[in-house]
Amino acid sequence: MNDKINVKDITPVKIQKPTKPKNQGSYSARNRIYVRAVKGSLENIRRFFGLIFLGIFAIIPWLQYNGQQAVLLDIAEQRFNIFAMTLWPQDLTVVAYIFIVSAFALFFITTFAGRVWCGFMCPQTTWTFIYIWFEEKIEGPRNKRMKLDQRNLDFDKFWRKSLKHFSWLAVAVLTSLTFVGYFTEIDLLFIEFFTFNTTFWLGFWVVFFAACTYGNAGFMREIMCTHMCPYARFQSAMFDKDTFTVSYNAARGEHRGPRTRKMPKETLIEKGLGDCIDCNLCVQVCPTGIDIRNGLQYECINCGACVDACNGVMEKMGYEPKLISFTSEHELSGGTTKIIRPKLIGYAFVLIIMTGMLVFDIATRVPIEIDIIRDRNSLDRETIDGLIENVYTVKILNKSQHDKVFTLSIKGLSSPVLYGDNQVAVAGGEVYTLPVSVAVDPSDLEIGTEQIYISVKTTDENGETIVVDESTTFIFTGF
């Protein structure tokens, strides 16, 4: 029997702890994070994606389609115009499919590459880096900003702080106007807002979202990512040992310590030093203020700023890059990363299915909606011609963006007579209410109820005929 106990080396790693505030207490204010600027390939990629999505966000409300705003989410009128498609409350399945596809796309990307959405494309991250850019251009680099905040108020500090907050507010107002412009006509919104002619509620929402942008990107910043965003809490459930995340190679980097650039490798080995020179640049460039060397943390948004900072130091020291890199747990332990794995295949399969269902739902969507309401005042009545008559209210919803002519007819009865307009013109995106009555010779009826169909026919933009039949009942009481 082997009584040997395996011993594992658990030499502690130096932990980066935040400085305690002067007024220590249970609810002390957080320490401000002064993010240091960084240059590198990942920073360039983040700026590229940030500019692309920021440009898309800013341009879309200004696009025109068929003489009207291409994307207009009109909540008051309960319709969403998205280029050639108009979505109504009856089209809830399309909206549901869009959210489901977005969710599974996020799950798939997170399983494969961690929180790259948070680090490269999330609006909170993008606007935070925009605000930090203004902060750095006006107040200076990290060290100067720290010294500026420690100084007493003088003219230099006053104008720099004033200009910074003015820039922040300008970005917040433009952001808010653009966002609200998705829900109302954006050209009129800008004119009315800057001429103080907007309605109370429209002005309220512009001010509200501007205040949210100003507070989130200017002051809360990492708090949104670490305490308020639910994605930060459940994203680790999608991670596995093959997920690419920003990680520190402790086997190569430990033990840490300063050294000169010309210190030979043999001396480093004798002193037990790894490649990490403990410069703390990886901490200074982190927008959430964590030390990636402490291992995987839920606060990490996978922005890769620490990767660029560390690669720059490794280059100056003449060491190999990627001491901090996008890698997997298997790769760090000396194994290989499995790209194709059951979880990733599962997410991809569901994503493809949901995308197919979304495309099918949009492709087979009929641009007509019919609602039939029976007259509740009387079941049936006899006309002066001796016919049995039922009264209905037909509501025709033109779900397209073009004016159409609709023709009504009756199916399911022998020689029915339709009283009322059997042909009506309905404007695009409008609901037309049409009272009609259906009369039949009593000799062709049996006492009771009979299922009939009110048919509505029109043509689409390509000249193809569209027919929609809606069922209702015809009642004959026999008097």
From TrEMBL:
<keyword id="KW-0004">4Fe-4S</keyword>
<dbReference type="Pfam" id="PF12801">
    <property type="entry name" value="Fer4_5"/>
</dbReference>
<feature type="transmembrane region" description="Helical">
    <location>
        <begin position="166"/>
        <end position="183"/>
    </location>
</feature>
<feature type="transmembrane region" description="Helical">
    <location>
        <begin position="94"/>
        <end position="114"/>
    </location>
</feature>
<feature type="transmembrane region" description="Helical">
    <location>
        <begin position="48"/>
        <end position="65"/>
    </location>
</feature>
<keyword id="KW-0249">Electron transport</keyword>
<dbReference type="InterPro" id="IPR014116">
    <property type="entry name" value="Cyt_c_oxidase_cbb3_FixG"/>
</dbReference>
<dbReference type="InterPro" id="IPR032879">
    <property type="entry name" value="FixG_C"/>
</dbReference>
<dbReference type="InterPro" id="IPR009051">
    <property type="entry name" value="Helical_ferredxn"/>
</dbReference>
<dbReference type="GO" id="GO:0051539">
    <property type="term" value="F:4 iron, 4 sulfur cluster binding"/>
</dbReference>
<feature type="transmembrane region" description="Helical">
    <location>
        <begin position="344"/>
        <end position="363"/>
    </location>
</feature>
<keyword id="KW-0408">Iron</keyword>
<dbReference type="InterPro" id="IPR017900">
    <property type="entry name" value="4Fe4S_Fe_S_CS"/>
</dbReference>
<dbReference type="Pfam" id="PF11614">
    <property type="entry name" value="FixG_C"/>
</dbReference>
<dbReference type="InterPro" id="IPR017896">
    <property type="entry name" value="4Fe4S_Fe-S-bd"/>
</dbReference>
<protein>
    <submittedName>
        <fullName>Cytochrome c oxidase accessory protein CcoG</fullName>
    </submittedName>
</protein>
<keyword id="KW-1133">Transmembrane helix</keyword>
<feature type="transmembrane region" description="Helical">
    <location>
        <begin position="189"/>
        <end position="214"/>
    </location>
</feature>
<dbReference type="GO" id="GO:0005886">
    <property type="term" value="C:plasma membrane"/>
</dbReference>
<keyword id="KW-0479">Metal-binding</keyword>
<feature type="domain" description="4Fe-4S ferredoxin-type">
    <location>
        <begin position="265"/>
        <end position="295"/>
    </location>
</feature>
<dbReference type="InterPro" id="IPR013783">
    <property type="entry name" value="Ig-like_fold"/>
</dbReference>
<dbReference type="Pfam" id="PF13746">
    <property type="entry name" value="Fer4_18"/>
</dbReference>
<keyword id="KW-0813">Transport</keyword>
<keyword id="KW-0411">Iron-sulfur</keyword>
<keyword id="KW-0472">Membrane</keyword>
<dbReference type="GO" id="GO:0046872">
    <property type="term" value="F:metal ion binding"/>
</dbReference>
<dbReference type="InterPro" id="IPR051684">
    <property type="entry name" value="Electron_Trans/Redox"/>
</dbReference>
<keyword id="KW-0812">Transmembrane</keyword>
